[in-house]
Design a protein that fits this description.
This protein has 14 helices and 16 strands. It is α/β, with parallel strands linked by helices. It has 2 domains: 162 residues, VC0802-like (2-Layer Sandwich); 228 residues, 3-Layer(aba) Sandwich (Rossmann fold), CATH 3.40.50.620. Strands 1, 2, 3, 4, 5, 6, 7, 8 and 9 form a 9-stranded mixed β-sheet that branches. Helix 9 links the parallel strand 13 and strand 14. The two termini are 28 Å apart. The C terminus is likely disordered. The structure holds adenosine-5'-triphosphate and magnesium ion.
């Protein structure tokens, strides 16, 4: 039976966390491959095996596995009975399936009753490959590593390892709320939090009613894209234009951007279920004038939530490279009218002290503005893959379904 053998790194798996990690990874792999003919997903020592129905689209299964955080690497293979002739045939099939110059057969016996040692088995199968398919053995750095694992009742033969996205399975680290602008940085920040096992909820502030829908459409597209890695996302869109104009009317010009950001954090915190405990931004130290250490501190002081900035130490070029790799860059650079360009002063302050900002905010009814943002926010739900969306729709969720 065809299968995909999934491996995870042991490093995050000390002690009691291990079972939880593996169970979460199995559940996420099952969900990600819904509708693709994966018959079972089981934990074996050090790996997870997805067994595929004969008609399963192996390429599509691999694509989904490759986007499941927690997967260090995976390979396509077969599950066969513990019979030397059958194992040999599977190894030869594997060698014929991929072009290579050098190869190695790595055998492991979890079942020590098998009547050969692992090196003996590896050598025997390697000799069969040289005789029947060709190629040269390189045990250290082969083009094609073929893995043979012997368990008590079954054996697995799998081919070259393909990289997974690494990290930790989504949801294992908890839930965070990302302020998503539609720019280059915040989608990358969200991705990095997902990679560390977080489920990310999104909040986007639009300049409505003073701007077009462009930034909202971008936020939708970006969240839709990022949902491929976490399977379900909520996106809140807050019309922020009137709140900004209130700030503009009452506070000094140079402090506007810091005040906008503080309002954004408060509203995002209030939108989280039971209050978001952790907020994520795409800020990077020194990138723009609002992102100085002083301003970051003054902005974060608006909320008691933990404010995480996964990009804080990254250069713009590194962020762009990552945005390109994950496929958000092209959308992020589409023109829009970001709410922050509305009423933005030419020379925003780089050092807003908390005392100044709090004095400015005394001119505002902050709780009423937060309540207004929350009341006017709308939520969209995203589900991937489409087959999972069917189940969620039946449960009454409003969905944006993606192909
Ligand atoms: P980005 O590329 O993410 O837009 P940026 O370099 O443009 O970031 P700023 O405009 O200073 O930086 O925004 C800093 C952070 O504040 C953003 O990364 C994002 O987390 C948050 N933010 C800014 N504008 C918005 C918005 N309109 N909606 C939601 N969050 C926003
Ligand atoms: Mg921006």
């Amino acid at each position: 039976m065809a299968c995909v053998v999934v491996r995870y790194h042991e490093i995050a798996l000390k002690g009691g966390n291990r079972q939880r990690f593996v169970q979460r990874l199995i559940a996420n792999l099952r969900a990600a491959t819904t509708g693709l003919g994966v018959r079972s997903a089981d934990g074996l020592p050090g790996r997870i095996v997805l067994r595929l129905a004969p008609e399963a689209p192996v390429g599509a299964v691999c694509e989904r596995v490759a986007r499941t955080f927690g997967v260090a690497n995976y390979s396509v293979g077969v599950e066969v009975p513990v019979d030397l002739d059958v194992i040999r045939a599977a190894v030869l099939d594997c060698a014929r399936a991929e072009p290579f110059t050098t190869f190695a057969v790595r055998a492991r016996r979890a079942d020590k009753s098998f009547p050969m040692t692992s090196p003996e088995l590896g050598a025997l199968l390697g000799a069969a490959v040289v005789a029947e398919v060709g190629g040269r053995v390189d045990l250290d750095a082969p083009d094609l590593p073929i893995t043979v694992e012997i368990l008590p009742r079954t054996a697995y033969v799998s081919g070259g390892k393909r990289p997974g996205p690494g990290g930790l399975p989504v949801t294992i680290s908890g839930r965070v709320t990302c302020l998503m602008s539609g720019g280059i940085d915040s989608p990358v920040a969200a991705y990095r939090m997902m990679q560390r096992g977080c489920r990310v909820d999104f909040v986007h502030f639009s300049g409505a009613p003073y701007t077009s829908r462009a930034s909202i459409d971008k936020a939708h597209d970006l969240v839709e894209h990022l949902t491929r890695w976490q399977l379900r996302s909520d996106l809140w869109v807050v019309p922020f234009g009137e709140i900004q104009s209130e700030i503009v009317a009452r506070v000094p010009r140079s402090h506007r951007v810091v005040l906008y950001r503080r309002m954004m954090l408060r509203i995002a915190e209030a939108l989280g279920r039971h209050g978001a405990r952790v907020l994520v931004t795409g800020e990077s130290l020194g990138q723009v004038s609002s992102q100085t250490l002083e301003n970051m501190q003054t902005i974060a002081a608006a909320t008691s939530a933990l404010v995480l900035r996964p990009l804080v130490g990254m250069d713009k070029n590194e962020i762009i490279q990552q945005a390109t790799r994950i496929g958000t860059f092209a959308t992020s650079i589409l023109p829009d009218q970001d709410c922050c360009t509305l009423f933005t002063p030419a020379h925003p302050t780089t050092r807003a002290t908390l005392a100044e900002v709090e004095a400015a905010e005394r001119q505002l009814d902050v709780p009423a503005l937060v309540a207004r943002g929350v009341a006017e926010a709308t939520r969209a739900r995203f589900v991937f893959p489409p087959e999972l969306a069917g189940a969620a729709a039946a449960a009454g969720a409003r969905l944006t379904v993606q192909g």
